[in-house]
Amino acid sequence: MNESLIKLEQVNTWFPNEKRVLGKPASWIKAVSDVSLNIIQGECLGLVGESGCGKSTLGRAILRLAPLSSGEIQFMGHDIGKLSAKGLKPFRAKMQMVFQDPKASLNPKMTIFKILSEALHLNSRVAKENYLEQSVKLLDLVDLRPEHIYRYPHEFSGGQQQRICIARALATDSRFIVFDEATSALDVSVQAQVINLMKNLQDKLKLTYLFISHDLSIMEHVCSRVAVMYAGQIIEVQDAGSLFNAPRHPYTRALKKAVPVADPESGKELGILKGEVPKLSDPPSGCHFHPRCDYKEEICSKKSPVVCKTGKKSWVRCHRHEQLWKQEVLKT
User: Fold this and answer.
1) Contact 271, 257 (CB under 8 A)
2) pLDDT surpassing 70 at residue 142
3) Whole-structure pTM value
């Protein structure tokens, strides 16, 4: 299946930073800058990068929860980027988000039945008299029991709360779900359970995911493709296998080296990314990564690299990607 469910064309989401006397912005925080990206129907696309690089803002912009400064967002073939709140309403049910903190995502004063009923109200295919029956089915989908239906969020563990959040996302008959660091607040063993649940639901219900994380090691087990984000820009998109075996961008290579290995006898030296993530209000000239790059040349600070296709659904932004990729392949 190669149809694009989501198509982004030169998407920008900028927020005013400093303001002049009359209230006009003197500068902008360029949280998302010139992002063009396709999310294929039925895939789980990973979005990885350090904290503060714009990942969550991009996820929210796709769902129109963050402002779209310019560019185009297509969902199921429809341009939703310029729709009003009223015009966007028919698409809202099809696009949902699961947030990082499940406890903060659930109303503590509402039972699970009321939480799910509120979401079912957006699903035109479910009549009100069937809300209870449908809610029980949703709990069963996420491996929770029917007797949980009248309990409150505080009566559940963190992993169970996240399952409830997933059930709520499914209640609207959604086709596309953004998981924004949805496993990072959970214990490692619970992370694995939730990830397995996500994968099973994707196969069973033919869902499409955007999985946002700062943890590259999780991406390898969850995603079919991975997009790497740095300072508001997507700098590399590759199939998961290709990205982990031979990443093309120096930043991706640095992220890979920084992933810890459980085996103490592996002989792998843990890499550390030098420097700091640049301010999105004042990104570096040329390639945004060049101040931290071990492979930079003079051109890197002067000219922004163009998108170079490396496969049918993969590309990279780097002046030296071909040379570095060959070096990586020779190592393996």
Assistant:
1) yes
2) yes
3) 0.92
